[in-house]
Amino acid sequence: MEKSTFQAIASNLDNRLYRGGLHFLIGITGTGKSSICEIIQKNNKSDAVFFDTQIDHSNESYQKLADDIKTTNKHVVIDGLLVCGAAGANVFDSVLDHVRTKKMGALILTQSFDDLSWEHVNVASSVSLISNLYPRENGNVYLHSVDIKNNVNEKYESLKEFWMKYWR
To answer: Which DSSP helix (H) or strand (E) runs through 2?
Structure first.
């Protein structure tokens, strides 16, 4: 765990996205995920396409998102995706195909580590958990970020431990 700022986190995630692979940023409402997403979009080193799914989680919206991901040849950032459920699983499958087949990067910002299975974490290149002790205050952000690589069991336990301690 390290103390960080929205700008530093955004820069790090944009660099990871640029290199490709699947990345997660996870934190509850008010931790600054959308603020970080806005900074990434402003700087946009990765030349990514951005999708905001925070408001509309309907099956139709998720189907359109899955279709849009299939037709783009750019890195993708999805703010607010609920990966659990059939509609979320469909989008997640499109994201995985995008990452594996097109060799592009994808960043999914979601609210709960509990929504991700061990399999979700296992296929990710990196997972970052964010906790903000004073919501939306830039200087009080704590980040636990791991590159998954080949040691998913140890890393998964580390992520679960941070989530249990700082999820509020």
So the answer is: strand 2-4
**Using one digit for the tens of pLDDT, what is the confidence trace for 33-86?**
999 999 999 999 899 999 999 888 899 999 999 999 999 999 999 999 999 889
CA distance 131 to 30: 9
Identity of the amino acid at 166? Y
Give the distance from CA 35 to its chain's centroid.
13
CA-based angle 15:16:17, to the nearest 5? 90
Q: Which two tokens stand for residue 83?
A: 């990966």
Distance CA 108, CA 149 (A): 18
Strands in 11-80 per DSSP E:
21-26, 49-52, 76-79
Side chain identity, residue 17:
L
Closest CA to 78 of 103, 113, 53, 57: 53
Six-digit token string for 92: 């997640």
Cα(163)–Cα(168) distance, integer angstroms: 9
Claim: this prediction has a pTM higher than 0.85: yes
Cβ neighbours of 71 (radius 10 Å) = 6
| Distance (Å, whole) CA 112 – CA 84 | 10
Euclidean distance between CA atoms 93 and 67, whole angstroms: 11
